[in-house]
Amino acid sequence: MTTRATQHVETVVIGGGQAGLAMGYYLAQHDHSFVILDAGSRVGDAWRDRWDSLRLFIPAGLSSLPGMPFPAGNAYFPTKDEMADYLESYADQFDLPVQLDTRVESLTRNGDRYVLDADTQRITADRVVVATGPYHYPNIPGFAPKLAPSITHLHSSEYRNPDQLPEGDVLVVGAGNSGAEIAIELAVDRRVWLSGPDTGHLPKWDADDLPRWLFWFDGRIFRWLFSDLLTVDTWLGRKLKARGQKGGDPLIRLTPDDLEQAGVERVPRVEGVVDGAPRLDDGRRLDVDTVIWATGFRPDFSWIEVPGLSCEADGSPIHDRGVVEDEPGLYFLGLPFQRSLLSATLVGVGADVRYLAARIRTRADAGETE
Ligand code: FAD
User: Are strands 270-274 and 277-280 parallel, antiparallel or unpaired?
Assistant: First the structure.
């Protein structure tokens, strides 16, 4: 039996990515004890671990966390490592109490306290903010293991660069942002198919011709449009949410024309495997050397066992703007469409954090658990 050292803090934030750190920024302004626990060994690793050529699809001028502007021109699209370093300096700048190498294995409740177990450590808390990100397990189709052993296949979260792949043709499955970007990168000197329906696209933006209004009033107009207008509280927001759940998010910064110009061939969905090769919806069988599953992620909150939390069929928690109504003191942050289209991005997380921080502060000051 593991013996665990126990300590008590008022608020525990689980996850020290952009969402958890932004929460820490607000918690630090009040006289409450808190800690941010993160499974990684360096702040920013969620970004560092993505593919080498990745750049943010939203420019720096709109991608800052509360209290510290991203150190670059407004129209610059940061690399993923620059974003990782920014998050690391953010934690340093505000002296946030991030405890690394600490994966919370279970979250339960004992009376009016939460109990978090992580390796040899037990922490009790009055309230917990779960900010473990929207991407837990790669969502790979069940038929993937039937692919012939000669076909290399990997999820987009394992993709780093073209040199990592064997020579030859590639099928990228999933035509959202990740799939489209990886397909274009690989099409430079290979035959590449991109499978899946068109998810639509936002108007194209390049660093050279970004409309200036985007950055007016510190980006407040843009934030208002995407973080206040396209929310679960508006008809249009709900429509976009339903569409995203069904068919993937629209392409940002890329369009179907870019895919065509790069020589990427669009094909229908992959619906199974025949004789070891992927088979498309139209019955075609593709002989490829590599398959990249850009098929998204599944949430995993099964390690949270508290009586007032229920989950949707896909495992995502039921909440109202991140507040779990039947579980006083439990909050979620950084979920896809937590409130707005951009809740799970750098642009949208700030509004959600402010809302939760205000709620926590009011209740904590009143001496209530929630
Ligand atoms: P994460 O960054 O995933 O951080 C979660 C943290 O929780 C991690 O550090 C992890 O170690 C920790 N953790 C998880 N489980 C536990 C546990 N049980 N115990 C302790 N710690 C735990 N957004 C933008 O705004 N602009 C972009 O350009 C953009 N590009 C993207 C490109 C890709 C390929 C992807 C996948 C996403 C992109 N996003 C972008 C979306 C989003 O901003 C990022 O996914 C971002 O990393 C989410 O931040 P987060 O803090 O919510 O979660």
Answer: antiparallel
Cβ neighbour number for residue 108 with a 10 Å cutoff: 14
17 Cα–ligand 1 center, Å: 6
Summarize pLDDT for 127-170 with one digit per residue, the tens: 999 999 988 999 999 999 999 999 999 999 999 999 999 999 99
In this structure, the residues whose C-beta lies within 6 A of any atom of ligand 1 are 14-20, 37-40, 46-47, 50, 54, 56-58, 63, 103-104, 131-133, 135, 178, 334, 344-347
Enumerate domains of the chain plus CATH numbers: 5-136+299-365 (3.50.50.60), 140-202+250-293 (3.50.50.60)
**Model confidence, pTM:** 0.93
- Residues 124, 129, 131: CA angle, nearest 5 degrees: 125
- Residue 304: how many other CB atoms lie within 10 Å: 24
Whether residue 66 has pLDDT greater than 60: yes
- The number of the ligand 1 atom at minimal distance from the alpha carbon of 63 is 25
d(CA 330, CA 94): 24
Distance 338 CA to ligand 1 centre (A): 14
Task: Choose one of 132, 136, 301 to mutate for the ligand 1 pocket test, by most ligand atoms within 8 angstroms of C-beta.
Answer: 132
Among residues 269, 349, 288, 335, the alpha carbon closest in space to that of 147 is found at 288
Looking at ligand 1, which residue's alpha carbon is closest to its atom 27?
56
Structure tokens at 240: 């976009």
Which residues have CB under 8 Å from 254's CB, separation 6+?
Answer: 177, 180, 181, 184, 201, 204
